[in-house]
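Entry 14. Ran structure prediction on the chain below.
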Amino acid sequence: MTTLVFVHGWSVTSTATYGQMPQLLQAGAAAAGLPLTLADIWLSEYVSFDDAVTMADLVRAFDHALRDLHLRDASFACVTHSFGGPVVRAWLHAQRTRPTRCSTIKLTHLVMLAPANFGSALAQLGKGVLGKLKAWWHGVEPGQRLLDWMSLGSTASLALNLDTIHGTDPAAAGQYQFVLTGDRPDRALYDYLVPYTGEDGSDGVVRIAAANLNARHAVLHWDGKSTTGDIDELALQLTRGPRFAFKIVAGAAHSGSDHGILRAAAPATVQDILRCLQVRSGDDYAALANAFDAENAGRDAHRVELEPAAPYPDRVHIHDPRSQLIVRISDDSGEPLVGAGFLLTAGPQASPDLMPPGFMLDRQVNAQQRATTTLYLNHALLAGADRVNHPDNTRKTLRPATISHQPYGASVKPLDLAGLVHHALARSTAGDDLLAILGPHQTTVLDVVLSRKIHAGVFRLTDDLSPQDFRDPAPGPVIG
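Output, C-alpha cells:
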C-alpha cells in the first residue's frame, strides 16, 4: 500500500488530535490484508491559528512538505479531518491549474472525515467567540483569513466547489474521494450561547449537507423576452456535479474523545475508512458509493433521537434530511445586488405564505459578500414526509404526516425598481419546480441573475449645437 498521510483540521495545535486512529487503521489494515505499517503513516502539523496564513499559503506549504517525503512510488493516500479536507482539495485544484508551481505527486485516495467542504455556520461568529469553544482548540484562537474562507457562502469556498461541480469525475481518472461525516452533535459539548453547536442535521460543527460533495449549481436568469406585466420570468438551468461516495456515520460527532469521528475512532469508522482505501477501480468505487447510499437510507429510516434530560422528559430530535441552499443575487453585468429580497414560494399561486411550516431552519448572510445568503432547509418537509411515531410506542405520534406544497418557486425584489438604471421584480417561471434543484443532505449553489435595465436617457446624442442643460434627463425607453 502507498504512504498514508493524515491532515488535521482547523486550529489544531497537537498531533494528539489524531488519537489512536493511525494505530487502529494499521491494525485494521493488517486484518484486511493491506500492507500498511506505521512507517508508512505520516501526521501533518500545519498552522491555522495565525491571521497571516491563507489557504494559498497552506497549499504551497503542503506541496513542499510532500516533496520532502521522497515517496517510493510518487503517490500517497490521505485521511483528513474537518478543514483538512478543503486544504487537500485546494491543493489538488492548484496541482491541476498551476502545474509549474506544484509537484506531480499523485493522490490516489482522499478520505475526508467531517470535511467543511461548504464551510461551517460557526465560522462567521468570529474568532473571539469560537476561541471559547474548547472542543475545537486549546489555548489559541483561529486565523481570521481561514475563518473567512470557511464562512458559509465565501467567495473562495464557492470557487473551489463550483470548479468541482463543473469539473470532470475524479474517479474516472483513478483518483477516489470519499466523505464520511457524523450525524449529530456531542450534546455534552453544546454551548447554549452558540446554538449552532447543537444544530440538528450537523455534527455540532459542520452540517451534513456542507460536508457532502454531491452538490448542484442552479442558475435563474432572464432570457430577455419572458415578462409578465412588470415581472421578469427567470428560466432555470441546473448542473449536477460528479458522484462522490458519501457515508453518514450514525452517532458520530465532529470532535471530542467520546463521540468524535476522529479521536473516538469507533470501530465502524475505521472499517469504513479501510473500505475506502481498498477501492482499486471505477467499478469498486461505484459499488462502494451504492453501498454507502443504502446504508444512509437505513440511517434515515430511523431518524428519531431521544436525548435524556432527567428529571425532565426526553428531548426529541427528528433527524430529517436537510438541504443547504446558497443564494447569490447579481445582475447580468456581474454586480452583486445587496439588499434584494428573496422569497421561496409554494403552490400554483406562487405564494410565500403556502410554504410548509418549519421548512426554514436557518438563514445566514455572508459578512463579506452581503448579496450571498445561505438557507438551511428541511428537505423532508418540502418533499412531504410520512408520520413520525415514537420509537418506543408506535401509537404515539411525534409528527403527523406532511404533504408537499409543490411546485416551489422563488421571487426576487431588488431595492432599485426605478431610475435611469434599475432592476425589475423577478420570479421563477411557473413550469420550474425548485424542489428539483435540492438534494437531501446536499448543498445547492443558486445564482439569481437579474437583468440590468438601462434607459436611453443615460447616453444621448443631439444635433442641437445650442447649450442644453441635462441635469434632469428624461429616462426614455429601456434599451435592448
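The first strand starts at residue 3 and ends at 7. Will compare against last week's run tomorrow.
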